[in-house]
Amino acid sequence: ETGVTQSPTHLIKTRGQQVTLRCSSQSGHNTVSWYQQALGQGPQFIFQYYREEENGRGNFPPRFSGLQFPNYSSELNVNALELDDSALYLCASSDGKLLSEQYFGPGTRLTVT
Amino acid sequence: DQQVKQNSPSLSVQEGRISILNCDYTNSMFDYFLWYKKYPAEGPTFLISISSIKDKNEDGRFTVFLNKSAKHLSLHIVPSQPGDSAVYFCAATRGGADGLTFGKGTHLIIQP
């Protein structure tokens, strides 16, 4: 059973640029969620995709957007990067059942300068 | 406004003793609670969960207790082992597409 993988591991961008982060779900999982973890904080829910549709969103502006592909892999896109976007971005997958556990990838560390 | 609070940033426990990690929540709509463990440079790893219809769930050395009236849950680890040293996150959800709401975490240090 393959776990959740994310790429790249680390990324440095300049304020105002755009970034795309990638995630491959655990085998058999059809739901992907993205979280932002700032230093010293717990992960914060960005949004969730189920069968290629966004079906839940946290308190993040529209410049955070995503995609889920037919193989259930996913992308997180962030436009017009701000310094406060510097964080660890975590992807989690689950089997889509109500109240099921989410399994996290190792994260992508984004630094915005 | 933090809906899930872990008021102890760190906790030090001797190997073999019981570790008790606490978590409080404010949203009475939360239906399901989870504990995750995180090592540096890794994503959080699911440990144990509990539904709001239960008050206790056990899995090996890990037990989670839920007190709904107090909006409080705790994770007990007994006996504590050196490999338990990590950051522990409490999380809660209403289920469905709501995502998980996390606390800030408690850094557990097991002393030999």
Give an account of the 3D structure.
The complex is a heterodimer of chains A (113) and B (112). Chain A is mainly β and 113 residues long. Chain A has strands spanning 5-7, 10-13, 19-24, 31-37, 44-50, 53-57, 64-68, 74-78, 87-94, 103-104, 108-112. Chain A contains no helices and eleven strands. In chain A, strands 2, 4, 5, 6, 9, 10 and 11 form a seven-stranded mixed beta sheet that branches. Chain A has a four-stranded antiparallel beta sheet with strand order 1-3-8-7, with no helix packed on it. In chain A, strand 9 (87-94) and strand 10 form a beta hairpin. Chain B is mostly beta strands and 112 residues long. Chain B has strands at 4-5, 10-14, 19-25, 32-38, 45-51, 56-59, 62-67, 72-77, 86-93, 101-102, 106-111. In chain B, strands 2, 4, 5, 9, 10 and 11 form a six-stranded mixed beta sheet that branches. Chain B has a five-stranded antiparallel beta sheet with strand order 1-3-8-7-6, with no helix packed on it. The interface between A and B is medium-sized, with 26 and 28 residues.
| Coarse structural class of chain A | mainly beta
Estimated share of beta-strand residues of chain A: over 45%
Give the radius of gyration of chain B: 13 Å
- Count of DSSP strands of chain B: 11
Order of helices and strands of chain B: EEEEEEEEEEE
Strand coverage percent of chain B: over 45%
In brief, what are we looking at here?
The complex is a heterodimer of chains A (113) and B (112). Chain A has 113 residues and is mainly beta.
Secondary structure layout plus pairing:
The complex is a heterodimer of chains A (113) and B (112).
Chain A: E1 5-7, E2 10-13, E3 19-24, E4 31-37, E5 44-50, E6 53-57, E7 64-68, E8 74-78, E9 87-94, E10 103-104, E11 108-112
Parallel strand pairs in A: 2-11
Antiparallel strand pairs in A: 1-3, 3-8, 4-5, 4-9, 5-6, 7-8, 9-10, 9-11
Chain B: E1 4-5, E2 10-14, E3 19-25, E4 32-38, E5 45-51, E6 56-59, E7 62-67, E8 72-77, E9 86-93, E10 101-102, E11 106-111
Parallel strand pairs in B: 2-11
Antiparallel strand pairs in B: 1-3, 3-8, 4-5, 4-9, 6-7, 7-8, 9-10, 9-11
